[in-house]
Specification:
24% strand
Length: 264
């Protein structure tokens, strides 16, 4: 067993593992106005046969056997998949000083990379999955958005499971619903527990209410401290003076799917 547990997997578009990687540099990106293309260095990658053949093959071999749609899969400390990042194609590679059997790989970066300012949120998820509700509430606006990004993109925690039967009662803790990200985090946890997903925007919420994401309508949602959201989710989606607020639009979506919302 490796003395250092891997933090990433390099995978192809068919979800096949090309390499098990110890670390990566350049994952978290500082905001910049520069047009310079960003790269990530994938360190200590133990290549599977297909990747090794590609790296050691001739130019003709690589043209005939391309690897041009790679993904970097972040793992948590238990080795479970967390989030996939698009890494494009291999720009460069070299033997790794960490281990003669491993390689260091350079790939494009920046398309969907996390901000350096929210690294602590990602490291929080890597170290331990949420086990209590509202653990996201200690973060500012950018941190809550990052938490929602992790929840929404972690395909291993989204849908695919059995819905609970119609008629269930769910409790949404509205204490910290001070912006849109906070609402989606709170409804996700109300339906699917700590770290749970139930939409990340209005369209996704509407999709989740159709089933396959943990709850089957009709059901009852008891929303405590709803006044916090009523006073915070005031953005309108239209320019008309009488346009409904985001809070009201959310109520309309719930009503469309026969969700009985009890505001407290």
């Amino acid at each position: 067993m490796d003395p250092v547990e891997p933090k990433f997997l390099l995978i192809d578009e068919d979800d096949q593992v090309l390499g098990v990687c110890l670390d990566a540099e350049g994952i978290f990106v500082e905001p910049t106005e520069s047009d310079e293309e960003l790269t990530v260095e994938i360190l200590g990658c133990l290549p599977a046969r297909r990747l090794r053949d590609y790296l050691e093959g001739s130019k003709r071999y690589r043209q005939r056997n391309p690897l041009d749609s790679l993904w970097l899969r972040m793992l948590d400390v238990a080795g479970e998949p967390l989030v996939d990042f698009w890494a494009g194609e291999i720009i460069d590679w070299r033997p790794s000083p960490l281990d003669p059997e491993r390689v260091d790989i350079v790939a494009p970066w920046g398309f969907d990379s996390p901000s350096a300012g929210v690294r602590d949120v990602w490291e929080r998820w890597r170290s331990a999955r949420p086990d209590q509700p509202n653990q996201w509430a200690v973060y500012g606006s950018e941190g809550r958005q990052a938490w929602l990004t992790i929840v929404g993109r972690s395909r291993f925690r989204r849908g695919g499971g059995l819905d609970r039967l119609p008629g269930c009662v769910y409790h949404l803790d509205g204490t910290h619903v001070i912006d849109e990200a906070a609402f989606y985090l709170a409804i996700g946890e109300a339906i699917n527990g700590p770290g749970g997903y139930f939409g990340w925007n209005l369209d996704a919420l509407d999709d989740c209410l159709r089933g396959r994401f943990g709850a089957r309508a009709p059901f009852t949602l008891i929303w405590s401290d709803s006044q916090v959201a009523r006073e915070s989710l005031t953005r309108t989606l239209e320019e008309a003076d009488d346009a409904p607020s985001l809070f009201d639009v959310i109520q309309t979506i719930f009503a469309k799917h026969d969700v009985d919302v009890v505001l407290r």
